[in-house]
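Worked example 3 (structure in, sequence out).
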């Protein structure tokens, strides 16, 4: 058990959630609420802090779903966390939303190899391959990317399962390409509970940054930059 107080927020997809980690216990407020994130997220965070009887200034760190996901959604959590961190002078741990999905599937279904996919719209998916490490946390294999479902990389020969909204939107194409994937959980979204769990490990490993460095990861920016570089 890690002695730590950490608040995690996520608004990167249709889901909106806040979670409070206190010395090994996690309390979460999670809602599927498209287009209501701005209204909900501060209320969720304040509700958890009030129930625990603590203030932001008493936290050791903040965490947030840094993307990939909706441009607007990712910016909401980023802005809120930056504001809190500046005001309380505490560090921030950015956590991948794809990793959050993979961690949830492991905790719920004991899946040790997860292909996380978030619907990226415009015919694409945000994609990442994750496998369980010795600490019981999901670890990225290779790189996260935004891809056409027809271009996803063939994973190494493990018992992989698929999870996330990308499997709901593009499941037919993904299953045709990845026929060995037999378990699929398309209704999984990033959630602050697993962001908090991953952030605690990140905090211990020195991955916390100051508020100014708590920036989103869109992935589409990377694609645009690579395209520009080729030209």
């Amino acid at each position: 058990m890690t002695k730590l107080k950490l608040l995690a927020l996520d608004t990167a997809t249709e889901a909106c959630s806040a979670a409070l980690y206190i010395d090994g216990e996690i309390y979460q407020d999670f809602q599927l609420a498209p287009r209501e994130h701005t209204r909900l997220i501060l209320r969720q965070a304040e509700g958890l802090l009030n129930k625990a009887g603590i203030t932001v200034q008493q936290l050791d760190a903040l965490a947030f779903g840094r993307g990939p996901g909706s441009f607007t959604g990712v910016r909401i959590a980023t802005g809120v966390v930056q504001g809190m961190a500046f005001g309380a002078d505490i560090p921030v741990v950015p956590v991948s939303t794809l990793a959050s999905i993979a961690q949830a599937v492991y905790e719920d279904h004991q899946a040790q190899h997860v292909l996380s996919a978030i619907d990226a719209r415009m015919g694409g998916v945000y994609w990442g391959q994750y496998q369980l490490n010795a600490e019981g946390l999901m670890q990225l294999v290779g790189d996260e990317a935004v891809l056409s479902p027809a271009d996803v990389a063939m994973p190494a020969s493990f018992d992989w399962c698929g999870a996330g909204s990308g499997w709901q939107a593009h499941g037919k194409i993904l299953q045709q390409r990845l026929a060995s994937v037999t378990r699929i959980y398309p209704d999984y979204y990033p959630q602050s509970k697993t962001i908090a769990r991953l952030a605690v490990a990140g905090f211990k490993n020195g991955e916390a940054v100051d508020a100014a460095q708590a920036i989103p990861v869109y992935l589409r920016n990377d694609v645009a930059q690579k395209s520009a570089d080729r030209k």
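Notes: The first strand starts at residue 5 and ends at 10. Helices lie at 37-52, 71-88, 97-109, 165-177, 192-204, 220-230.
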